[in-house]
Amino acid sequence: QVQVVQSGGGSVQPGGSLTLSCAASGYSLERSVIGWFRQVPGKEREGVSCLSTATGSTYYADSVKGRFTISRDNAKNTAYLQMNSLKPEDTAVYYCAVHPDYVTVQQVCTMLSPGEGHWGQGAQVTVSS
């Protein structure tokens, strides 16, 4: 049985940093596309960043370029989203998802539906002074 378990998140002041983790069990992240998404109530889900573990290709939404970094740890079968210089507009519930790599990072980040791939449970990130 595939499980994707997220950790991290929380509250931070503007300019601060947080790291989200996404640990997969029953599913190897090798040859996968890992995606981080966020959603604010009343708004559409946004693909924040995606990584192809086979090619190393990455995708970042314009709103987070230069501030967020996606990565993974092969030994731990875990993906991460390092978020720096956080802004109040980054406040959202963040989800990770993993998908076989027959799709591109852009396809995952821009088109992946909740019924595709394997999703984590979500983590609240609040950026406020």
Word description of this protein:
The mean pLDDT is 95. The chain has 129 residues and is mainly beta. The longest helix has 7 residues, at 105-111. It contains one helix and eleven strands. Strands 2, 4, 5, 6, 9, 10 and 11 form a seven-stranded mixed sheet that branches. Strands 1-3-8-7 form a four-stranded antiparallel sheet, with no helix packed on it. The chain starts with a strand and ends with a strand. 5% of the residues lie in helices and 48% in strands. It is globular.
List keywords for this structure.
four-stranded antiparallel sheet; 129 residues; single chain; seven-stranded mixed sheet; 11 strands; globular; mainly beta
SSE order and pairing:
Elements (H helix, E strand, L loop, with lengths): L2 E5 L2 E3 L5 E8 L6 E8 L6 E7 L5 E3 L7 E6 L4 E6 L8 E9 L4 H7 L6 E2 L3 E5 L2
Parallel strand pairs: 2-11
Antiparallel strand pairs: 1-3, 3-8, 4-5, 4-9, 5-6, 7-8, 9-10, 9-11
Poorly predicted regions are none
Structural class: mainly beta
Q: Summarize the biggest pleated sheet.
A: 7 strands, mixed
Taken in chain order, the helices and strands follow as: EEEEEEEEEHEE
Q: Please report the number of helical segments.
A: 1
Question: Could you tell me the number of beta strands?
Answer: 11
**Rg, Å, rounded:** 13 Å
What amount of the residues lies in strands? over 45%
The span between the termini is 41 Å
Q: What is the mean predicted local confidence, pLDDT?
A: 95
Q: Which percent bin holds the helix content?
A: under 10%
Q: How would you describe the shape?
A: globular
